[in-house]
Amino acid sequence: DGSGADDWEHALRLLPKGPAQVQRGRVLGVLAMGLLPDAAAARASFDEALRIGRRTGDPTVTIRGLFGTGARNRDLDAMAEARRLAEQLDSQDLLLTVPMYESTAHTRNGAHRRGVEAAREGMRLARRFGLGLSRGADLSCYAVRGLILTGRWDEAVALVSETLAEGPPPSARQDLHALGGQLALLRGDLAAAAVAAAGPADALRGPGLFDRRRWVCLLALAQGDPERADRLL
């Protein structure tokens, strides 16, 4: 499905179990981050990673475990701890992942504006690291989702257009096209939404499968085609 989950699950089966297995904790954290955060497998992997991180003192494992706890439980203290540890490690990857989970936690708390701010802060940091085209594009998707939820649709459309114009990688491009289609649907522009839905052949596969299929189902309903919506489900 493009997430690499099968490979990480295979790697996990090859590793010994136990609360002091740092390598197992690292694999668990990466595996969980590629799954839907509320899925049972993700919850179990995040929780085990956090236990291993606490037991071993490994900051990378701890941070990834905190991501799951923070996002799932809307625990901003967990996110603050993850940020402090990432800053101590000076890890660009983790520093750019923190705002993604911060944005998610704020959104789940209903603080959509703070979610947008967290994502935009991450975008600025990505540009400073020279990763604006890749990680910055991923973070822009989080900002767009927050802008949609706050009703700032014009800003959301502008951000989608700006980010697409920069030529982001395929995965981010797919997500941005999907968000553009969702915005068109919200505005009642079924023609534009249909164009977005008829994108690349792989646009309905990969880690963003759930969000993309959801809005395409809604488009089918808006077009008076419940049978197609049912097939997509």
Describe this structure in words.
By secondary structure, the chain is mainly alpha-helical. It has a domain at 1-90. It has 13 helices and no strands. The chain is globular and about 55 Å long. The model is unreliable at 201-207 (pLDDT under 50).
Describe, in short, the structure shown.
The chain is mainly α.
The main pleated sheet reads as: none
H/E series:
HHHHHHHHHHHHH
**End-to-end gap:** 16 Å
Question: What is the subunit organization of this protein?
Answer: single chain
The percentage of residues in β strands lies in under 5%
- Give the total of beta strands: 0
Total helices: the number is: 13
Radius of gyration: 18 Å
**What is the global morphology?**
globular
